[in-house]
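hey team, just a heads up i'm posting the complex here instead of the shared drive bc the drive is being weird again. everything in one block, sequence lines first with there labels, then the predicted structure for the whole assembly after. its two chains so it's a bit long, scroll down
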Amino acid sequence: MKVVKFGGSSLADGGQFKKVTDIILMDPERKIIVVSAPGKRYDGDTKTTDLLIQLADRVTEQGDEQDAFRAVMARFETIVTELKLPAEVLTDIEEHLARLIETYRDDAERLYDGLKASGENQNAKLMAAYLQQRGEKASYVSPDEAGMYVTDDPGNAQILPESYEAMKTLRDREGILVIPGFFGYSKTGHIVTFPRGGSDISGSIVAAGVEASEYENFTDVDSVYSVNPALVETPYEMKEVTYREMRELAYSGFSVFHDEALLPVVKKRVPIVVKNTNHPQAEGTRIMAERTPDDMPVLGIASDKGFVSINLTKYLMNREVGFGRHLLEIFEAEEVSFEHTPSGIDNMSVIIREHQLENGKEERIIQRIQSELKVEDVQIERNLALVMVVGEGMARTVGVASKAATALAEAAVNIKMINQGSSETSMMFGVDAAKADLAVQSLYYAFFEKQKTVQ
Amino acid sequence: MKVVKFGGSSLADGGQFKKVTDIILMDPERKIIVVSAPGKRYDGDTKTTDLLIQLADRVTEQGDEQDAFRAVMARFETIVTELKLPAEVLTDIEEHLARLIETYRDDAERLYDGLKASGENQNAKLMAAYLQQRGEKASYVSPDEAGMYVTDDPGNAQILPESYEAMKTLRDREGILVIPGFFGYSKTGHIVTFPRGGSDISGSIVAAGVEASEYENFTDVDSVYSVNPALVETPYEMKEVTYREMRELAYSGFSVFHDEALLPVVKKRVPIVVKNTNHPQAEGTRIMAERTPDDMPVLGIASDKGFVSINLTKYLMNREVGFGRHLLEIFEAEEVSFEHTPSGIDNMSVIIREHQLENGKEERIIQRIQSELKVEDVQIERNLALVMVVGEGMARTVGVASKAATALAEAAVNIKMINQGSSETSMMFGVDAAKADLAVQSLYYAFFEKQKTVQ
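-- predicted structure starts here --
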């Protein structure tokens, strides 16, 4: 049994619905379908979710909500018309939205979550209706019926552990099941949406819950690329990538698959296959526990900005048992998590995401470091990007650091920090944020241009 | 006023005493002399301190101590004879040693500390007597008279803060003062020796206490080399090196100057000048707060063995606020200090000196990591060497990492870990201990052979 998730662009209009249906029917293992809200049909189009947010904005501003309401309905209407679905489908959607607005008019948080979720929710109903019209035994399964129980934290739902057990029963249901992505239900019966990565998370949870043989994730690219395709001309297409590699890449700037979405399937070792709705015959990218060994030391290069480094100096620091613990405790007290802590003999840096330092946290942290650790110097270095070179093959290969550092030197990128842990699956370079793209390009050229010609 | 310390080889026999005296008299600023015990006169000779330890061994074993006693006396007798010092000097030494043995016969710790210290102690008396014979106003000053108060921790004395204030009065004393290195007195009146670096520590403390204009450290090399001279043919001689550079090098394997010996002068910014007793006209190496900028990014390359890395893996580790703090707390509870903590996304390593893991500490640490941090995997990697590339110029130079990593790759040395903090004064490479020398040699060749031809 496969769980198949279709992204927003895969379900943007009636034509895409037909493609998706063909894909579903091509493989009888494709039993559970998780859908996103209708996405962009063309450059400059607005996603349904954004239309729904605009509608929520109007309602909370107590402005004229009719135009915004009609804009949302127009998206669904186009699909219903294109697919020649019965008119009552559309009436249902309209009543559903109106009811949501009335119920939550004075509760902005719930209103936003409810409206945002309805893009996926209604789209799942349309998908189920269209499959039925095509003669398939198919049913819409709401997340609460599916067992998708989440914490009651609007916009940031976390799955509750009992959900996985509850979802097992989905295996026994007949026909094709269509489940909306992006949200679950709290124990108090409220709709609560997931953080970024929304529908990918839903699909991953369902795939883990039913212990699927595969979690297929259909989007609009043939594969996951080794590097941000906006930065190089013909990016290398990854055929296989391990969870670990994907996680390092996702963490450091790859937007393909958020790490929240990886976690559920990693635990159950369900392979993810990223495929293209518009080109389903392409092999796609398999994300799995172990991949076939090859001779490529590096599989991907990612970068992310928005980091700062808090650098401190104290003579004989490393003789003070408890210094590092005390330092990290100061960050912990402010609920700030750190990325890396590179160190010299008498200095140590704590690299963190800058957005964590709001509301006076920066001042309090610096002040405590000065007064409690009695450092000689503490400074904050901003505009830092972390560039990550990732590949399970790095551990087996001598010279990766050399090639990477040489590529950066030749591009005149100053390396501010380097960190390579014992796993040897990744190597981190801290560089000036303004040089991050150049760093990625030069590293890509060094590791991939030659690899490609060899194959 | 200069404080001048002479090492063991500089005072190994009467001939060396004469050289040392000439050096002292060459510069009227050389007012305070700190001396080591007589060292080796030739390859295969035994240092006086080792003879004293053998004597202590005999006494504690309750064996025949006469031969060992005579061997110690023979060393002093040779010097006394060569310098034509009065015979009572020798009688004094003999009585002193005999009294020490009688006093501490049943207290092994005190016996060892007392006998070990007497090498320096008696040598200082000889030096003072010889200076007097040469017509100088000179006096022996015992460490308690000098104000060298230390903790009562045999073999591991730590200076007490009030010592610095007490030593200030030495400035007002007339003539040349000769102080034995290597030990101080506890508040209970016992002789207590310093840890490794012994007499260098004493000299540094005195130099800081009297706020000397320079702390001259006479040994048997023309300068401090940029690399272990046993590893390369014509090692680069450092003219100037900052405290910070010296400390990084000393910490990572340079035996010239231990970091315990650096600390006192660093605080008072007294420059250290390392010079050669056998070639005093050589300029030597100045260790100071700031050095003259030059175009050499790297000033020294050091390595040290005996490290292990405790490597742990846990999915989404970096999301857990408090994970790093908790990990370091486990090491702290066992009083184990760490060197570096390189990390990936889901893994973290703690590099420590292996000798710290004795007495079940290793098992307890691993066990607590497993049970309290619920990691997926924890492993201990042994036989690790840390190779340190050091230079204040690195921060100003693009391409240092590239050159270093390329040198290691070309020598087929696999880099297990890399760490470069924000100070950019040093870069650490973790390599297999068996490859440490090769790593140092290849790095030296890369950074120095070309630098040398340019000059």
